[in-house]
Amino acid sequence: MIERKDVEYVARLARLRLSEEEQERMARELGAVLGYIEHIEELDLSGVEPTSHVVDLVNSLRSDEVRESLPREAALANAPEVVDNGFAVPAAGS
Amino acid sequence: MSQNTATEYEAVIGLEIHVQLSTNTKMFCGCQLQFGADPNTLTCPVCLGHPGTLPVPNEKAVRYAIATGLALGCSIAPRSMFHRKNYFYPDLPKGYQISQFDVPICSDGELAGVRIHRAHMEEDAAKNIHVGESGRIHGAGRTVVDYNRGGTPLVEIVTEPDIRSGAQAREWLQLLRATIKQLGVSDVNMEEGSLRCDANISIRPVGATELGTKTELKNMNSFRFIERGIDAEIARQTALVNAGEKVRQETLHFDPSTGSLTSLRSKEESHDYRYFPEPDLVPVAPPAELIEEIRASLPELPLEKADHFENGLGLSVDTARFLAFNAEIGAYYQEVLLEAGADVDAKRTADWVTGELVARIGADADPAESKVTPVALAQLVTMVGEKKVTNAGAKTVLDRLVESGGVPEQIVEAEGLAAMGDGDELAGIVDAALEANPKAVDDMKAGNMKAIGAVIGFVMKQTQGRADGGEVTRIVREKLGL
Amino acid sequence: MSADLIALSAAQAAVALHAGEIDAAELFSAYADRVAGEQIGAYLWREEGNPLVERPADFRSTPLAGVPIAVKDLFCMEGVPSTAASKILEGYLPPYTATSIARLQAAGASVLGKTNMDEFAMGSSNENSGYKTVKNPWDETRVPGGSSGGSAAAVAAGLAPWATGTDTGGSIRQPASLCGLVGLKPTYGSVSRYGMIAFASSLDQAGPITRDVTDAALMLKYMQGKDERDSTSTGLPDEVELPSATDLNGKRFGVPSTIDWSGVQPGVKAVFDAAVERLTALGAEVVEITLPHAEHGLSAYYLIAPAEASANLARFDGVRFGLRSEGEGLTAMYENTRHDGFGAEVKRRIMLGTYALSSGYYDAYYGRAQLVRTKIADDFRAAFNKCDFVVTPTSPTVAFKVGERVEDPLAMYLSDLFTVPMSLAGIPAISVPAGLATPDGAAQAAPGDDGALPVGLQIAGPAHSENALLDAAFAFERATEHMPAPWER
Ligand SMILES: [Mg+2]
Ligand SMILES: [Zn+2]
Fold first, then answer.
1. Domain boundary among B382, B414, B446
2. Which residues 9-28 of A have a C-beta within 8 angstroms of C?
3. How far apart are CA C183 and CA C163, in angstroms?
4. Going by C-beta distance under 8 Å and a sequence separation of 6 or more, which residues neighbour residue C125?
5. Which of B14, B458, C329, C373 can pair with A51 through a Cys bridge, CB separation 3.0 to 4.6 Å?
């Protein structure tokens, strides 16, 4: 129903490292949940418009006015690693 | 014989252009936009992607996107949505980019024969700076992220594959850039990254309709490199196909210093961006009146401007297009005309701008940033027209203006470059010239007027170019009774 | 004296504070002392100072005059640890405060602490906290429900007069039901989501967990409102009124004939039937309605919510805040950070959501769930042509034992059966204590019966019907025999 290779692929997309055992379990549990969920396949939903939002609003915009930014110390305060006043991470590939 | 001819190929090129909008603030928060500010001084919880924060779209950015679409002949969607485009990268604070997907705000336009597939709104990524050893425990290189640019409003313009060569791509992009510049919605500064272009390139046998495998050429940062990069890629693909090999779908980087194309390491997984409607935002549904109001307020755009230059001012097609498509040079030209007043010759002024001035400062430079003010150039062109200075003298004046600015009249005065008119001084020098060139005088008397060259040469040497050639000829004829 | 202070509801305390009958700093201390000694895992962080002593002027002239409040740890507060009960946010100090909390503070509420919850609000038992499990004060071997289980347990144990909660698929209503409290999920958009750590953006709503309906109205009054920082917020069209109805004359209550009672404990069913009778006795007309797609609500919910969550939780990447686990290179850093920082349920939902959105599956899963969502909203629209309110049990069972469902995610998800349809439709729903059942859920029970556990009645109304809903709940509450909470015993 959901294969190990799907679990691996999805875990990679989601940037989640899963141990062998976690992968096994994930395949099993997701399989059970998807098995339940799949009943919606039986519904006749032709001609139905999707609802991505229940609020009946459009054009909820703000005017182009400057708001004060955070002081740099506050912006960096929670950062795990700071180099040269920036947020540092292991080198990103080109 | 004809069956031995190698197949001829044509290139099929589509462009994707990212334009940073010049709003005061970011797309989804109130942080100020400012190029070159100290790193991470223009951020807030929203554009740092802090937990619980929410985006609120910038009304001005929406307006600018609509204006861009209208200038490109697009239809404006009555109701468009934002989507999330999901991928992990340190310059993307939320782990997704807010963009548009199936219903972009603008679609189906056309500019100068190139169809526009779509133009949509999105937010820019932040800036990754690669540093070497950080001096920290981890040893390996680090990437440092500056989120100042993150969240800058962008319009991404995607063309249909209607372009056939690097030169055409370059000229069309210049038109696009001038158009956007004229709209006033972006600085379109390629060096600062406010205009960025990717090209999708494939080749196919001439006459074929099916598209070949395309490659993507990324992030070329000048018009010249775009033309060269595209041509290099067309040549590479043609050579591959001629050698019986296949073009592989990949993303390439063009190195202008070596002219080489290198394949960028492909992302680790396929582009599975998992787009879905952005639940933090409601649709953008611009009322028809707003669209009409924006349409009515569009300025004269470069294509109309080229038409005006050509048919209104009498410039050649090439000069008209050059001025209209090179936004800064065109704007400068119009300002010189304005300063010079009604009597000035528009055509000759255009020659001074597109010829002499551009030759001195370079075609990629903005003349407004040179030391030659439009007032100064207008004055110089007027002085030439009034024969107060000769062409040769004026070129010297322009050299001085480019070097250190100043007022043409004063330079002419200081350097003694004023044209010699019909005064006694010039007549005296002509006398001396005739005396020094008896053979030329004889030849002229014998009907060979070409011989006057030696006399004029003598005069010019004596006056250091300040004499007017026509005036010298008149005096010679008068003196010799010819 | 201290016990008398604890006995006051939030509304009563506000009145007494305004009248000068009690002292705000003493009231705060009375609760803070209890919080300091609490043993049920309700709090993740507690205020150690006494703001009423330190800044009395901030509170004196405000409507709530310093009434203490507990805040679910899903809300960001400037400079206060805000973790969503996740290890990935351990040590995180937000540089800003959630709008709804700022509004309550501006109205004079003083924050006692941050309450425990299921990590990122994902769960129905509070066993998914990254820090500690919360115990149900009615029976400490049982769960308080979730995800706002810390808030519910705190109120039920007298560790706060009231608390904020958040509800994505039932996370206010279900723990309120399991702890014998009132829990209100307002109309989507009425309370700003700004500063509430996002679980599923199109469903998340903050609301009150309180001892009674009046307090629920009072809290909603001060937390709702349109917010320019949340472009999906609308606020409520009418001022929230404190409820006063004494009867239900002329009100029509719809009971869905489509409910499948097979998964509902008999004791819960019996309490529900008795509640419906009480509605009739109050003058209400009970009508039969159908919600034909409600049974598919759970499926739609368990696609939409994880899909949105998979994106909402992508920002926890070890770059700007929170946990970082190093690794060889960038991808390894991401993968290790998220492996170490997220608990099992969060990983499960990220995986489910990522899968539902991934290439080739969107139409079958996420896309289809959005269509089901439309049908569910249509069902409610049709129902509200026939009735003013829809009633169901809040939870199919009484509070279950700690550990009972942890190995079976699907069984856990079924706890939300009755609450998710309202979330998908974005309509308001309240859970009000309706009665008691035996600990095994087999039969109805009476106050004083050994181990009896609370059962809630869920009342839902059309969008923006909060005042009517609160009035109906208030009338029902008055007609329902009082069930002493654990702190009262
Ligand atoms: Mg883009
Ligand atoms: Zn910002």
1. B414
2. 9-11, 13-18, 22, 26
3. 10
4. C118, C143, C144, C145, C146, C149, C400, C402, C405, C406, C412, C415
5. C373
pLDDT tens-place string over residues B413-472: 888 888 876 667 788 888 888 888 888 888 888 888 888 888 888 888 888 778 877 788
C107-163, pLDDT tens digit by residue?
999 999 999 999 999 999 999 999 999 999 999 999 999 999 999 999 999 999 999
Q: What's the gap in Å between B85 CA and the centre of ligand 1?
A: 9
CA C217, C220, C221, C226 dihedral sign is negative
Question: For the CA atoms of chain A, what is the radius of gyration?
Answer: 22
Contacts of C323 in chain A (CB under 8 A): 80
Q: For residue B275, list chain C residues with Cβ-Cβ distance below 8 A.
A: 357
What is the domain range of residue B451?
424-480
Contacts of C416 (CB under 8 A, 6+ apart): C124, C169, C170, C174, C298, C301
Contact between B282 and A66 using a beta-carbon 8 Å cutoff: no
Q: Are residues C270 and C310 in the same domain?
A: no
Cα-to-centroid distance, B64 and ligand 2 (Å): 20
Residues B428 and B392 in one domain: no
Structure tokens belonging to residue B399:
């050299």
Q: What is the ipTM of this complex?
A: 0.97
Q: Does any domain span residue A27?
A: yes
Of C344, C364, C384, the residue that ends a domain is C364
Task: Answer yes or no: do C280 and C154 share one domain.
Answer: yes
Residue B466 per-residue DSSP state? -
User: What's the mean pLDDT when you consider all of chain C?
Assistant: 97
A51 — contact with chain B (CB < 8 Å)? no
- The encoded tokens of residue B283 equal 């649709």
- Tens digits of residue pLDDT in C232-253: 999 999 999 999 999 999 999 9
Taking the C-alpha atoms of C336, C339, C341 and C345 in order, what is their torsion angle to the nearest 10 degrees?
170
Q: Where are the strands (E) in C47-128, listed by range?
A: 68-72, 110-115
Backbone angles phi and psi of A90, in degrees to 5: -55, 145
Contact C210, C219 (CB under 8 A): yes
- Name which of A75, C161, C414 is nearest B47 in CA terms: A75
Query: How many domains does the structure of chain B reveal?
Result: 3
Ligand 1 centroid to residue B31 C-alpha, Å: 21
Q: Is residue C55 located within the same domain as residue C129?
A: yes
Query: Do C223 and C337 fall into the same domain?
Result: no
Distance of CA C146 to the CA centre of its chain: 8
Alpha carbon of B322 to those of B153, B186, B205, B364: distances in Å? 29, 21, 32, 12
Q: Domain limits at C318? A: 301-364
Domain of A25, in residue numbers: 4-41
State how far the Cα of B217 lies from the Cα of B11, in Å rounded to an integer: 14
Name the residue type at position B331: A
**Alpha helices, DSSP H only, in B217-373?**
223-242, 288-296, 302-307, 317-325, 327-340, 346-351, 358-361
The CATH number assigned to the domain holding A9 equals 1.10.20.60
Residue B474, both tokens: 């008149």
Give the residue from A15, A28, A45 with the most C CB atoms within 10 Å of its CB, the best one to mutate: A15
The number of the ligand nearest the C-alpha atom of B119 reads: 1
Q: Does A70 touch chain C (CB under 8 A)?
A: yes
Burial class of residue B113 (count of CB atoms within 10 Å of its CB; 0-12, 13-18, 19+): exposed
**Of C127, C218, C216, nearest in space to C173 by CA:** C216
